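About this split. The held-out portion is used to measure sequence recovery: a designer receives only the structure tokens and must propose an amino acid at every position. Recovery is the fraction of positions where the proposal matches the reference. Here is one held-out target exactly as it appears in the evaluation file.
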């Protein structure tokens, strides 16, 4: 016996779930309208049921194309009149618009990345103690500069030697 995945039932199961969610329905609501139990719908959506599924009824209730529900072919949502032909005729125009949008999105992502890097640098600078300033929020003019000596303290290297 073939598994649901091997027989292609898995993709039908996924499309049943997608159609139900497209309509914003629960499994229980779909089950009531189809005239079956909620566990039956659950089994259909998980590809566990090998019994007959009323795909035409599910398609009508969920307002999707039955051909799409059965085979995955065609559009999920039925178009009225010659809308499909109109969309097909507009595909080149849509492709140009999508390409232009992709370029804008790439540019925005690059700018965002540069901004993030600038903010991270600023954050690092603000976190560094400022030489010669005691715990203030002042920004250091040169965070790479060596710390200035603090009054009243001397480092060992700079301390005068006392004769002994």
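Reference sequence for scoring:
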């Amino acid at each position: 016996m073939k598994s649901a995945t091997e027989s292609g039932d898995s993709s039908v199961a996924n499309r049943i779930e997608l159609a139900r969610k497209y309509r914003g329905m629960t499994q229980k609501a779909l089950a009531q309208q189809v005239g079956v139990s909620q566990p039956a719908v659950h089994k259909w959506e998980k590809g566990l049921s090998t019994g007959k599924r009323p795909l035409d009824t599910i398609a009508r209730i969920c307002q999707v194309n039955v051909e799409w529900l059965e085979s995955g072919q065609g559009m999920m949502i039925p178009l009225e009149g010659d809308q499909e032909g109109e969309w097909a005729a507009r595909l080149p125009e849509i492709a140009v618009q999508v390409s232009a949008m992709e370029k804008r999105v790439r540019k925005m992502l690059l700018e965002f990345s540069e901004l993030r890097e600038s903010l991270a640098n600023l954050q690092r600078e603000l976190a560094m103690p400022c030489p010669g300033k005691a715990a203030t929020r002042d920004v250091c003019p040169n965070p790479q500069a060596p710390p200035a000596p603090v009054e009243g303290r001397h480092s060992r290297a700079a301390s005068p030697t006392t004769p002994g």
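Annotator remark: Residues 1-8 have pLDDT under 50 and may be disordered.
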